[in-house]
Design goal:
Helices cover 46% and strands 15% of the residues. With 325 residues, the protein is an alpha/beta fold. Strands 1-2-4-3-5-6-7-8 form an 8-stranded mixed sheet, with helices on both faces.
Length: 325
């Protein structure tokens, strides 16, 4: 009997130590438990975490090798308030066929943020070009995909550095003067339509970017509290970036640069996108007549998460049948 009590006490003590350690971990970094869950998702897709220093920034990115050494390298660039994890549903459908490289842009996610640095379209395009030059491999052409803000950055990078980019995919991409919607009007008025400060604004943010609540990521308490606290802390940085990409003289730079894109290209939008209005696709298409145009129904701004099967099929079509201008 005393031995059994000792074992019970040992188990209880171990559990208490574990709980205390978990609480301390979460207290020091509220987003750490959520990132751990996302890391498990990445591991399930077969992605490996990598780090690289380029210039004055440390990049965090995920990578998965292809079944064939000469398979194209698909590089996926996230959007405003996003991260590399946004691409996991698409990565799960492309794995094996292509080498996958999915970075957190400098300033975002787990990549380094430098105080006072410029994180607008042009500056990030320069950093992305340097990143591509580091991760590319001979015999594996780069297919560069960009979503939302990332689409604007990808457009500039592809136009300025055609030697690095073999094919281009712009998905719900920012950077052109699309038809007025609530999101655009609020941005021009100096607001951040993605701002989060409580549970209601977090749900409003999710409802803005996702058309169907059924496919929204589940963020139960206390993870939701961690996300809210994190977004509150990020508000000044988000405002700084939005001032550059949404209100400065470079806000339409991606659309202007797109006229120089001659590589095979894909334009993909969701008809229910309430962030970058679908009218943006025609504006890009006017500058990129070679681009395949794909319009999806039943999804919002996060097509890469809401319709990953359809997006994967479009990317495969770009790789197999896309033609240059």
């Amino acid at each position: 009997m005393p031995l059994r009590l000792t074992r019970a006490r040992t188990v209880a003590l171990g559990a208490a130590v574990f709980v205390c350690a978990l609480v301390a971990w979460a207290w020091r970094d509220p987003m750490a438990p959520l990132r751990a869950v996302m890391a498990v998702q990445g591991a399930w897709v077969g992605l490996s975490e990598k780090r690289i220093v380029i210039g004055d920034h440390r990049w965090a990115y995920d990578e998965r090798e292809a079944a064939s050494d000469d398979a194209p390298t698909v590089v996926m660039v996230h959007g405003f308030t996003g991260s590399k994890e946004n691409w996991y549903p698409l990565a799960a459908r492309l794995r094996g066929r292509y080498r996958l490289v999915i970075p957190d842009l400098p300033g975002w996610g787990e990549s380094q943020r430098v105080a006072g640095a410029d994180y607008g379209f042009s500056a990030q395009a320069g950093r992305l070009a340097a990143f591509l030059a580091q991760v590319r491999r001979d015999g594996s052409p780069i297919v560069l995909l960009g979503h939302s803000m990332g689409g604007g950055i990808v457009a500039i990078t592809s136009a300025r550095h055609p030697e690095l980019v073999a094919r281009v995919g712009l998905i719900d991409a920012a950077g052109v003067r699309f038809a007025d919607n609530r999101f655009g009007i609020e941005v021009l008025a100096g607001q951040n339509p993605f701002a989060v400060h409580d549970a209601a604004s977090l749900q409003r943010y999710l409802d803005t970017v996702f058309h169907d609540r059924g496919v929204q990521p589940s963020i139960p308490w206390p993870a939701s509290r961690a996300v809210i606290d994190w977004r509150i802390a990020q508000a000044p940085f988000e405002q700084q970036v939005l001032d550059r990409i949404g209100r400065s003289n470079e806000r339409f730079l991606p659309g202007e640069a797109a006229a120089a894109i001659r590589q095979p290209a894909l334009l993909l939008w969701c008809r229910q996108d309430r962030v970058i209005d679908p009218s943006a696709m025609a504006l890009y298409a006017a500058k990129m007549p070679q681009a395949m145009q794909v319009s999806l129904d039943g999804c919002g701004h996060m097509s890469i998460m809401e319709k990953p099967d359809e997006v994967a099929a479009a990317v495969a079509l770009l790789i197999q049948r896309g033609v240059p201008r």
